[in-house]
From TrEMBL:
Pfam families: Abhydrolase_11. InterPro entries: AB_hydrolase_fold (IPR029058), KANL3/Tex30_Abhydrolase (IPR046879), NSL3/Tex30 (IPR026555). Residues 27-207 form the KANL3/Tex30 alpha/beta hydrolase-like domain. It comes from the Eukaryota. Gene3D superfamilies: alpha/beta hydrolase. This is TEX30 protein. It comes from Crypturellus undulatus. The gene is Tex30.
Length: 220
C-alpha cells in the first residue's frame, strides 16, 4: 500500500507491507545515505516480516544530514501512531546505515520527551559507527542513551563499523542489546562466495526472531 506522509510542507514516499492476519506490532524501516526505500535489502526484509505477521512501513528520505533524517523519521512515527488503518500496540524502529543513526536519534529524542511508550526497540543494519579509516571519532552518543532493546546486524568486515569498536560500545550500553555478525560481510552486506539471497535470509530470520522474542517478553 503506497502512502504519502506529511513532513513539513512536503511529503515522504512510503510503502506499507501489510500482513494477512491481525497485527499488533510494526516495524518502520528506512535506507542509508544512498538509495531509497526500494533498496533490495529493505524490500526483502519488509516482505519477510509482513509474511510472518509483522506490519512494515518503509519510507524514503533523501537528506544527507542526520538531524534532518531524524526529523523525517519522527514524522513517520507520529503518522503511524495516529493511523486509523493500523492500530498498533507498539513499533520497532529500524534502518540501514545512516537510517539506523536517524532511528537511534529519534528514540533518544522521544525518551527525553518522555514519549517513548510506543517504541519497542531499535534494529540497526550496518550501523555506521565511524567513517572509513576514521575510527577515533565514534558515532555512539545516541546509542549510550537508549534504554529499549537494540539489535545490531553488522558485517564482521564492515569498513564503517570495526568489530571490536562496536563490541566496546555495546558493552557500555544500558539497553538490552544483541549483535549478530554476518561473517566477512562488508558495509553493503556483501560476502565473497555467498549469494545476496542467502545473506538476506540470514538477516531476515535474525531480525524476525529477535522481534518475536522482544514482543513476547513484553506480553509475559
Amino acid at each position: 500500500v503506497k502512502v504519502k506522509i506529511p513532513f513539513g510542507n512536503k511529503y515522504l514516499d512510503a510503502i506499507f507491507s501489510v500482513p494477512a492476519k491481525t497485527l499488533t506490532h510494526g516495524v518502520i524501516l528506512t535506507h542509508g545515505a544512498g538509495g531509497d526505500m526500494n533498496f533490495p535489502q529493505l524490500v526483502s526484509l519488509a516482505d519477510y516480516l509482513a509474511s510472518h505477521g509483522v506490519l512494515c512501513l518503509r519510507f524514503t528520505c533523501k537528506g544527507l544530514n542526520v538531524a534532518y533524517r531524524a526529523r523525517a523519521y519522527k514524522a513517520v512515527v507520529e503518522y503511524l501512531k495516529l493511523s486509523d488503518d493500523y492500530k498498533l500496540s507498539g513499533v520497532f524502529l529500524a534502518g540501514r546505515s545512516m537510517g539506523s543513526r536517524a532511528a537511534a536519534s529519534v528514540i533518544r529524542q522521544l525518551s527525553q520527551d518522555g514519549d517513548d511508550d510506543f517504541i519497542q526497540g531499535l534494529v540497526c543494519l550496518s550501523y555506521p559507527l565511524h567513517r572509513p579509516k576514521l575510527q577515533s571519532k565514534l558515532r555512539d552518543e545516541d546509542l549510550l542513551f537508549i534504554r529499549c532493546p537494540v539489535l545490531f546486524v553488522s558485517g564482521s568486515a564492515d569498513e564503517m563499523c570495526e568489530k571490536q569498536l562496536l563490541e566496546d560500545v555495546v558493552s557500555k550500553m544500558k539497553a538490552p542489546k544483541k549483535i549478530h555478525w554476518i561473517d566477512k560481510a562488508n558495509h553493503g552486506m556483501a560476502v565473497k562466495g555467498r549469494t545476496t539471497d542467502d545473506i538476506m535470509e540470514e538477516i531476515n530470520t535474525q531480525v524476525f526472531s529477535w522481534l518475536t522474542e522482544n514482543i513476547e517478553l513484553k506480553h509475559k
